[in-house]
Amino acid sequence: MKPELLIVCCGNRYSSDDAVGLHVARRLKEGQIPEGIEVLEAGTPGLKLLDLWEGFDKVIVVDAVMSGAEPGTIHVFEGTSLPPRNFLPLCLHGFNVIDAITMAGVLGRLPRELRIVGVEILTEEAYCEGLSPRVAAAVEPACERVLAEAKKMIG
Q1: Virtual CA dihedral for 105, 109, 114, 115, nearest 10 degrees?
Q2: Which residues contact 45 (CB under 8 A, 6 or more apart)?
Q3: Fewest CB within 10 angstroms: 55, 85, 89, 114, which?
Q4: Residue 6 in contact with residue 36, Cβ under 8 Å?
Q5: Mean pLDDT of 19-46
Q6: pLDDT tens digit string along 55-102?
């Protein structure tokens, strides 16, 4: 049976805090994921995001955010009220999650329900593995928030 909800966790493991989505994915997989939920480590998917969520009506995207808030702050955005494009880091070829969502809307390939859970990061320093302490401390609360949002979406 196909899962009802997909959690797509994004990030570049070699760009410091930008990897926070991948850390959330791994932590979620270590715990009890409710039935009907699939967790996917997507790396930096760019427009491939549209293919990853194909066939899912309910999707949560977990990614790094740089809005100027305190590192470790957890944001939740509804699919109908996306954050500004520059809040999310760019990925390969200059696309980010907001670009992919915008393109999906144009192409009619948006999931029926979409949320973004963003974790405010301190740095996306290239060629640096590991999270800064404040962002690392936000991984567990981010997991709790993701699961709370998932529960709202699948009832």
Answers
A1: -60
A2: 8, 10, 52, 91, 100
A3: 55
A4: no
A5: 94
A6: 999 999 999 999 999 999 999 998 777 777 777 765 655 678 888 999
For the chain, domains (ranges, CATH) are 5-154 (3.40.50.1450)
Helix (H/G/I), strand (E/B), else coil: 46: helix
- Hey, which residues does 37 pair with through a beta bridge? 5
**pLDDT beyond 70 at 18:** yes
For residue 28, give the DSSP letter. H
Average pLDDT, the chain: 91
Secondary structure, 3-state, 84-147: CHHHCCCCHHHCCHHHHHHHHHHHCCCCCEEEEEEEECCCCCCCECCCCHHHHCCHHHHHHHHH
Tokens coding 130 = 């590991």
- CA 28: distance to chain centroid? 13
DSSP assigned state of 4? S
CA–CA gap between residue 101 and residue 6 (Å, rounded): 15
- pLDDT tens digits, one per residue of 35-45: 999 999 999 98
